[in-house]
Design goal:
Layout lengths: L4 E6 L2 H12 L10 E4 L9 E4 L1 H5 L8 H7 L4 E4 L2 H18 L3 E5 L2 E5 L9 H16 L3 E6 L2 H8 L7 E4 L4 H5 L12 H9 L5 H5 L3 H8 L1 H11 L16 E12 L2 H22 L2 E11 L4 E12 L2 H15 L6 E12 L3 H4 L5 H19 L21
Parallel strand pairs: 2-4, 7-8
Antiparallel strand pairs: 1-6, 1-7, 2-3, 5-6, 9-12, 10-11, 10-12
Helix pairs in contact: 4-5, 10-11, 12-13, 12-15
């Protein structure tokens, strides 16, 4: 039986979802005019998290400061992001996709994979994909791209072809013609820095990457990533579509330092960045955690770790960070060199009622707002799913400081 995977991706999700709500309120369709979505239009530090096609044609880009976008287009329509509405739109979108196949993996708030291998019953996969695309548009008011492929990698690559409101295929037998001519940076998981390194070795297209021996790639990106890149460039991906039942029971992240840290302030900054990463992953998964753990690895590679249960489930970065700070005081003497730190979250729940109590404390409302803006920035960044540590958060914006 031929494996058939769909990847469904909402076109300009935040802006499209904002447009749907505004149209329901009798406003204009912001998708047809120069417009952007921003965390807080009144804040000079706000960035563009989504832009309409007319805005993009004027040179406005995501992750660009709003002030710069306004200089480009003084009449730019700026709409404030609404995370609660985004979740509602996302849930409705996922429900329609799930009606086509219960084997659904939520890849982010605005995209998912579904395994259609046992659901087509002799139907044309492209015809079914068009039906799904058109149904989402008719019922929810926004458009999607659907990639149809032999595995998750190829389906994801296909959905990134021409947009918006399109269906594309990328079967194994189409890899040579459709994928190999693309720039190497277009391959999933190959970011800008990796692409530049590959370019410096004369590897500029996915086809050239596919024909490069893994041993040579190992010297450029390391053995594990070299094997993955070579497989992906050749269209190989055996990973399953993981349903909600198979979601991880814990979320963790760690950071290893180039030089051992002894300065408490530097260590606290590192813990802050790791806390941002795990909290973002937690919110993106739709969970709250009731258990927080942390570890430090010393210069001699010995490990000290501690965990505790929270007073109530949370997904707030500041709460997680403050718990970690308390745990750190129990495992570190304040002067021993530290090589690595890590934070883990577990004990997940999806009880939305937990969030309602947070707004009783004005401080919690600020922390929640900070988290929403951080999530928007991460979603707008090029490699949000890699959750890289390169993006430093200004000190005066950090929660819990």
């Amino acid at each position: 039986m031929r494996r058939v995977i769909f990847h469904i991706d909402v076109n300009s999700a935040f802006l499209s979802w904002a447009a749907v709500k505004l149209l329901e309120e009798g406003d204009e369709d912001i998708r047809l005019v120069p417009s952007v979505v921003s965390g807080d239009p009144s804040d000079r530090r706000s960035i563009v998290t989504a832009a309409s096609i007319p805005a993009k044609k004027m040179g406005i880009k995501t992750a660009q400061p709003v002030t710069m976008a306004l200089r480009t287009c003084p009449n730019l329509r700026i709409v404030r992001g609404d995370w609660a509405w985004y979740r509602q739109c996302s849930d409705s979108f996922m429900d329609i996709c799930r009606s086509y196949s219960p084997v659904l993996e939520k890849f982010s708030i605005d995209e998912c994979f579904i395994d259609m291998s046992l659901r087509l019953y002799g139907k044309d996969p492209v015809a079914v994909a068009v039906e799904l695309k058109d149904r989402i548009h008719a019922e929810l008011g926004f458009t999607v791209n659907v990639g149809v492929g032999s595995n998750k990698l190829l389906a994801k690559m296909a959905s990134d072809f021409e947009k918006p409101d399109k269906v594309h295929t990328l079967w194994t037998e189409e890899v040579t013609a459709k994928m190999w001519p693309l720039d190497v940076g277009d391959l999933l998981w190959v970011g800008k820095k990796t692409a530049l390194r590959l370019n410096s070795y004369g590897i500029r297209t996915i086809g050239q990457l596919a024909s490069t021996r893994p041993e040579l790639l190992t010297g450029i990106v390391g053995k594990k990533f070299a094997i993955q890149m070579h497989d992906n460039a050749n269209g190989r991906d055996d990973s399953p579509v993981e349903t909600d039942v198979q979601q991880a029971k814990s979320i963790s992240a760690e950071r290893t330092f180039e030089k051992d840290i002894v300065n408490p302030a530097e260590l606290d900054k590192a813990l802050f960045h790791v806390a941002c990463i795990v909290a973002h992953r937690l919110r993106r998964s739709g969970f709250q955690a009731s258990c927080v753990s942390m570890f430090i690895k010393h210069k001699d590679f010995s490990v000290a770790q501690k965990q505790c249960r929270t007073s109530r489930p949370t997904d707030i970065t500041a709460e997680i960070l403050n718990i970690v700070r308390s745990l750190l005081s129990q495992v570190w003497d304040g002067s021993s060199p530290i090589r690595q730190v890590g934070i883990g979250l577990s004990g997940f729940t999806q009880e939305d009622i937990v969030q309602m109590t947070l707004f009783e404390d004005p401080k919690m409302e600020y922390y929640r707002k900070w988290d929403l803006e951080y999530d928007e920035k991460m979603s707008a960044s090029e490699d949000a799913r890699l959750l890289a540590y390169e993006r430093a958060v200004p000190k005066d914006e950090a929660p819990g400081r």
